[in-house]
Amino acid sequence: MTDQVGANEAAAAQVCSFLQRRREQIAQRWADASLFRTVFTLSREEAVEACKAVVDALADVALSGRPEDIAAPAFGTVRDQLGRMAASRARAGFTPAQISEEVAALRAPVVELLRGEFTDSSEATAQEGVLALTVLMGSLRLVVMETALSAGEELIARQRLQLLEVATPVIKLWEGIVAVPLIGTLDSARSQVVMESLLEAIVAQRAQYAILDITGVPTVDSLVAQHLMKTVAAARLMGAECIVSGIRPAIAQTIVHLGIDLGTILTRAGLADALAYALAQQGIEVSAHRMARASTR
Amino acid sequence: MNRAAAGHPLAVPVLALGDVLLVTLQGELHDGMAEQLQQDIAQRIARSTVSGVVIDISGVDIVDSFLGRVLSDIAAGARLMAVRTVLVGMRPAVAITMVELGLTLPGLVTALDTERALDMLATAPQLAAVSVPAERKEARDAGLP
């Protein structure tokens, strides 16, 4: 058992010294590999430098004696660079499997070089060395994939946040009348944002009427209805009257079929109807300007 | 001299603006204060000509079920004496919390701020009336003088 551990350590140390000795050669070979060549298109020197950084990191990981540890601190130094490379390949339309394949292709030239070193050495040591190197390259592949995927997750989270902010504008339609055109599916997080921005707007605009337009909401189920009712109740507590507009015939039928009671909510067919109601309640009358029309004819 | 003026240090002040009573709640309302406030308002309504009560809760950080019930009770008591109650100045965060807790204060009339509430009380009664009992009360109220 201790022999095995000792052999592993010896192999790792061997791989480390090999990587450090052949740093230049490995970097030159990797620079020709499709992964580095296509990412660093500006100059070959840049690609070689990037390759050297990766080789150094691998040597450090091998030195630490845990080639299978993808959380090794040595990987941290190249994680950013690997992430950028993976992102660049992903932008070029490569699937994660294809990127992984490209990283795997880096293994062959290194193993070839290592085998070349061992022609005079005994078989067992050579096998150990190649095995350790293979494990190390496998870890590198995992690190690249992990970095790429976590970058994707970050992007998704950021976009979700942007969607929340962008998709809920509160529009002042008239003095004391604000409207929120709701577009897309209403989930709990979005309805919370809608409620907050609507209430803030009611305070800021001193609005007496708030119109929630659901023309852009594809389906209304009991959960969406519940969100609507909550928003209406919150607006009422603030002293504003809420009108839900944009109820399409299909949605009206769905609401009736589901047995949702919207009796406590003021509803109108379209945004125009809701605005007309709010204006009428404020005693504002909209009419054609007869004088202007008479003068033009 | 009512009891609030008699020097209860913890009592909520009830101000008279013309024929409207203005109550400004600040911070937390204890059981004793709530009861005191209800009595004060009822006595002021009974003693002088009051057309409406405005309760300002802009200085209140949280409205729980207790405060919600107190407010409903005050409004219900005032309604029995033909006086409308308007709740004003609720903050957005408070409104959201209340809705999440399921406290929607049915039967209470709300307004954005004190100015709006005074306008509301000054204009035609049916504007301020939301629930059916309030409308009936106001119809009767209008018929009285």
TrEMBL record, chain A:
Keyword Phosphoprotein among record annotations: yes
Arranged from A to Z, the UniProt key words for this protein are: Phosphoprotein
**SUPFAM superfamilies given in the database record:** SpoIIaa-like (SSF52091)
Q: Which Gene3D superfamilies match?
A: STAS domain
Q: Which domain of life is it from?
A: Bacteria
The segment(s) forming the STAS domain are 167-278
Record's protein name:
STAS domain-containing protein
From TrEMBL, chain B:
The cross-references to InterPro entries, in alphabetical order and at most eight, read: Bact_StressResp_Reg (IPR051932), STAS_dom (IPR002645), STAS_dom_sf (IPR036513)
Q: Which CDD domains match?
A: STAS_RsbR_RsbS_like
Domain of life of the organism in this record?
Answer: Bacteria
Q: What is this protein called?
A: STAS domain-containing protein
Read off the Gene3D superfamilies from this record: STAS domain
Where do the STAS domain residues begin and end? 10-121
For this protein, the record's PANTHER family field holds: RSBT ANTAGONIST PROTEIN RSBS, RSBT ANTAGONIST PROTEIN RSBS-RELATED
